[in-house]
Amino acid sequence: MLGEYRIVGRRASEIAASVERGVGSGELEPGQVLPPMRELADRLGVNPNTVAAAYRTLRERGVIETAGRRGSRVRPRPASTVRGSLRVEAPAGVRDLGSGNPDPALLPALGEAFAAAAGEYGREPAMYGEAPVDPEFAALARAALNADGVPAGPVVVTSGSLDAIERILVAQLRPGDAVAVEDPGWGSMLDLVPALGLRPVPVAVDDEGPIPGAVEDALKAGARALVVTDHAQNPTGAAIGAARALELRGVLAGHRDVLLIEDDHGHGIVDLPLHPLAGTTDRWAFVRSVAKAYGPDLRVAVLTGDPVTVDRVAGRQRLGPGWVSRLLQRAVVHLWASGAVDPGKVAGAYARRRDGLVRALARRGVVAHGRSGMNVWVPVSDETGAVARLLHAGWAVAPGALFRTAAPQGIRITVSSLAEDEIEPLADAVAAASGPVEPLTFG
Fold first, then answer.
1. What is the pTM of this model?
2. Quick one: 242 exposed, middle or buried, by C-beta within 10 A (0-12, 13-18, 19+)?
């Protein structure tokens, strides 16, 4: 079962540390089954409760997972291994279309907004004990949410989308709980879930977002939370339309105890109407980041949701960082109030590049997906080979392994910096590198 590796220890902490050493050294490989608790207890001469405590610690740390009668096994991807390590670096002379960054030319200048915020700060510095959310920030954020049909709820500010999602999951779930996640989906999200000691359950997606039947299956299988991207889904560009939203609300209505988290990171770069699912379940959270439209280094996201969820997040935040800098919040207020970003212009620029590439690939018989946002997903039969061939041809793209769990292979191309005269040469290179692949839905 364990080959030559021997688990040792008399205390739960020692047994857990022994297993972690084996995983870290590679002597315990992903998927390897651990001994049943009673068997290991007999071998070590300890009480079975001691081994049970050790296994519980390992689950909470995301090192192992337990699958009922099939026993406990090392996680397929240890939580300490981030998908970012799979990223392809673009050497000199190679066009980088794999980083996932927005086009700097479409980001607003920040100097005026920060100067105005700094001027206000100079007249009235923010101090301890003040409200963690700037009142004008909250009012503008809430008005925008209302306009998009997001149900009423208190507003909290977090340091970006992933910070918000982590705080929500920790506030509402316990280690070992299952979380339904899009597959392919955001790589950081796929890493975060096991890192929190939670169990990811992949949900297939298509161009309209999560497939309702796949969501139903995940929830029936015991998933206690569902994380959904409304539009500009990373990496596929999926966007939830009116009909799909209606279907998903129907599924969620039968599972009102499920925690629903919506990620609206594409706000400000997508001109498709938003069809929120928020409010369909008793526990819900809606997260809206400013990173893609205003700049990744503006670590600001708006979080709203049901009062209990938001209160738990806000309470825990007060015990840690306390609040997100009100200086940052005031700068974002000035950006919003000044209309520094024209969503139609930004969305149009990305759409011309994205749609142009998808059409060019179609003319070459290559299936590609990209309904919204700044990414195009291309299914391939051998993503490692495709990435290598494209790199040799002068194009760096992201391997699908960064974004998938059970979904078929693919590559992600970020079109944000793509020039019009690059579309046809890039399409030629992708067609030559991708190889034959059967038509598919993701997952």
1. 0.84
2. exposed
